[in-house]
Every structure is written in C-alpha cells, then in structure tokens.
Design a protein that fits this description.
single chain, Rossmann fold, six-stranded mixed β-sheet, 10 helices, globular
Length: 268
C-alpha cells in the first residue's frame, strides 16, 4: 500500500497498529490524506498515534555501494539509473553512491539518469522499459563498466541490460543476488536496507507495548543499512574494499562522515 493510503487507513482505524515499512516521513492532514506542505502543518503523531513509519538512510547504503563500485571499476566511469527524479530515497541512494565512489577515486566519473520525472508505472513497474532505457543509457556512455539500479522492478531491467552488456550491476534495497537470481552472474553487490531487522524490532516493541508513533530511522548507527557481499563476483572487489567499507561505517556511526550533499534527496 502507498504511504498515503496507509496513513488514511491508520486514521480511520485508530484501534489497529499500523507499521509502514520502508516509508519516508510524510505530512498528513487530519483526515489522513497527504499534505505536501513543508514543514508539516500538523503533528502526525497526534493525528495517527497508531502509525509508525520505518525509514532508512539511503545515502549511507549508496555510499557503501559506491566504495565497491569505484574499487572494481577498470574504466573509471560508473553509472546509476533511478526510477524517478522526484523520489527522494532514489536521489539519496545515488548521491551517496557518487560520494562513496569519489572517496575511493576522486577522479572517477559518475553518470546518472532517471527513467521518468513522475510516479507513473515507468518508474518502478516496467522491467522491459527499464532494460530499454539502460541500453540507451549505456550506448550514450561508452566505457561505463558498473551500473547501479534504484528503480524497483524497472531496475531489474536495468540489471538485465548490464548483464547483457557484460558489465557489472549493483542491486538495491535487498541482496539482489538472492532476490533476483537472473542478475547473479553480473551482480557486484547491492545497497541494502536491513528490512528484516527493522520489522523484527517494530514487532517486538509493539508486543512489549513500547512502539512509538512517528518515524523510526534505520541507519548505520543501529545497523539498519549495509552492503551485500559479492557472492560469486567477490573476486571483482578491490582487495581493500572491505577495509574501506568498515572505515566508512565507523565514520557514519560516529557522525564524522558526510554521505549526502547539503540538499540531500534533491536534484537542485
């Protein structure tokens, strides 16, 4: 269910606890409908005290994937394709990816593009369209040898194109070596949100009667994000990749590492 529909349902069913998995903070009106005004005109905790949103620090996971990509790239050019430019989490993933790559190789070229600028089916639900878009993207960016997808089912098509072009792909949200085996032959890693951990925590705290309304953020500090192992393609990782990942995670946990630009989640 979309975040807006979920919030409406929560407002209309105050006796039921709602836990929104992988949902960014949203502004809602008294009737539960989404309000795009910022800052939020109403307190969602008051309007929907039975609604908890589990959100994730996508830029941190993207940063770790960027470390792996830069270390593995032979050409010095890597890429990323997002589903839509108005998806804040998509943009954060790619912003973190670029910064992580540049932390390894300041001169690396990171090329990115978005399938669409709206929330139409093309953004996240069109695997065939994603493959076609990625094929055109690769044709326009000769030499690119690693491609990160941030586009759901559309992104699986991006991975299909990467494998067909004999370059490495990077998955998103979960370990796609397991969730999308078709891409396993060329999958370098995946930028992960630790969804199982977040849901387990939420269910345990709800059972204990201590689940708080509002947004719970999962990031490096509570082991809410990470990067998948290389599985069959771990031999393509740079020898010091894990050392750099560990150092980056330490910096994220103590707050010393910046993984997103000042306008995080925005293209402007």
């Amino acid at each position: 269910m979309e975040a807006q529909g979920f919030s409406v349902a929560a407002c209309n069913n105050k006796g039921t606890t709602f836990i929104g998995v992988d949902q960014s903070p949203i502004c809602i009106k008294v009737d539960g409908s989404q309000d795009f005004t910022f800052p939020c005109p109403a307190d969602s905790k008051t309007i929907a005290p039975n609604y908890t949103s589990l959100a994730f620090q996508e830029d941190q996971a993207g940063y770790l994937a960027g470390i792996v990509a830069a270390g593995a790239s032979k050409s010095g050019t890597i890429g990323a394709i997002g589903g839509t430019s108005i998806c804040g989490p998509c943009v954060r993933y790619i912003q973190g990816y670029e910064l992580g790559a540049k932390s390894v190789n300041p001169n690396i070229k990171v090329v990115s593009a978005y399938v669409t600028n709206d929330f139409s089916a093309a953004a996240f639900q069109d695997q065939a369209g994603g493959k076609t878009f990625a094929e055109n993207f690769l044709a326009q960016n000769a030499g690119l040898d690693i491609l990160f997808q941030v586009a759901g089912l559309t992104g699986n098509g991006v991975l299909d194109a990467a494998c067909a072009a004999n370059i490495s792909g990077i998955g998103v949200d979960v370990d796609q070596f397991l969730s999308y085996p078709n891409a396993a032959p060329c999958l370098l890693t995946s930028a992960e949100k630790h969804l199982e951990l977040a849901v387990s925590d939420a269910l345990k705290t709800e059972s204990a009667g201590t689940l708080e309304p509002g947004t719970i953020l999962y990031d490096a500090k509570n082991d809410g994000i990470g990067v998948a192992v290389g599985h069959d393609n771990s031999n393509h990782w740079a020898p010091d990749a894990q050392t750099k990942i560990n150092a980056a995670l330490a910096g994220m946990k103590d707050g010393s590492l910046k993984t997103c630009p000042d306008k995080c989640g925005s293209l402007k």
